[in-house]
Amino acid sequence: MSSEEGLSSTITDWLFFSSWWLLLPFIMLLVVVAFIVAFVLLLYMISPLISPKPLKLNGAHVVVTGGSSGIGKSIAMECYRQGAFITLVARDESKLVQAKKEVEKCAINDKQVVLCISVDVSKDYGQVESVIKQCQEKLGPVDMLVNCAGTSFSGKFEEVEVERFRSLMEVNYLGSVYPTRAVITTMKERRMGRIMFISSQAGQIGLFGYTAYSPSKFALRGLAESLQMEMKPYNIYVTVAYPPDTDTPGLAEENRTKPLETRLISETSGVTQPEQVAKIIVKDAVQGNFNSSVGPDGYMLSALTCGMSPVTSITEGLQQIVTMGLFRTIALFYLGSFDSIVRRCMIQREQAKAADKRE
C-alpha cells in the first residue's frame, strides 16, 4: 500500500469516527424519547391494575349530610339517578321534606327510597351515631358517606367575631368527623366503602377574607390524607372535593358580608352550577379518586397542592410531576394579580378617608 493510499484510508476512518461522534447525541436523544414513550405506555397499561374497583351505585346506600340544599342536594339527586338509596341528613326539617320530593323525581326504579333525618352533625357525636344506626337499620349498611354539611363566611380577620372561628371549625370540620366515625367501623368490617369530604378551593389556597373559613376547609385535607392511609388496606377510599364558587344558598349568604377584595378575587374564576359540580364529584368518588376538582383552575390547583397526597394511579402521579413547573409559573401570575387587587383597594380606601377628612 502506497503512502497516499494509507493517508486516504486514515482520513476516511477519521471522518467515519467523527461523524459517529456527531450523531451520538441525536442517537442518545432518540433512545431517551423511546424509553419515555415506552414508560408512559407501560404506566397506562398497569394503572387500571392498581386503581380501586369502581363502586356501583345501583342499590347502594348513600348518606348525604347537608343534603337539604346546594351541592349536597345535587349530589343526592345524581346518586339517585344511578339507582342509589339515599339518606338525607340536615338540620332544617322543612328543607329536608322539600329536598326529598326533588330527589324522588330522579328515581329510576320503584324500589328506591329516600330517608330524611334531622340532626346537627356538628354538635353531639352520640346523636350522630344514633342517626347513622337508625338509617342503616332501615336501608342497610352505608356504602358511601358524603360529608357536605358546612357553612361559609368571609370578612377581614380583625373584624370577624372570635366566636365565628370556633363555629366554622365545628360545622365544617367536626361536622365531617362525627358522621365519618359513625360509619367507618361497619365499612372496615365489610372491606368496602367510600368517604367523601366536600372542601373548597379556599381549602387549597388561602385568600383575603377567608381567615376563618379557609382553615376549617384546609383541616379536611389533613383528615382525609391520614384517614386514607388507615383505610386503604380495607378497600375504603377517601375523596376530597374542592369545588369553586357554586350557585348555592350558602354562596348567596356569604356574599352579604364578602369584602370588596374577596369579591374581586372570586370573580376571576366565575360561578359554577351545583349540578355540574355534583356530576364530577360523584364520578370521582365512585372511581375512588382522592382529589376531585372542577374546571381548569381546579385541576391546576389540585396539581399544585398535591404535596404528599395519595394518587389513584401511577398515571395521575406522572401528570402531576410533568405539570408542576408550568402550573407554578401560572400561579405566580395569579398571586401577583391578587396582591395587586388588595393593594388597589387599600389605596382607594386611604384616599377616600383622606378626602373625608379634608371635607
UniProtKB/TrEMBL annotation:
Keyword Glycosyltransferase assigned: no
Pfam family, one: adh_short
Segments crossing the lipid bilayer: 20-46
Reaction equations catalysed: sphinganine + NADP(+) = 3-oxosphinganine + NADPH + H(+)
Domain of life: Eukaryota
Entry similarity comment: Belongs to the short-chain dehydrogenases/reductases (SDR) family.
Protein name: 3-dehydrosphinganine reductase
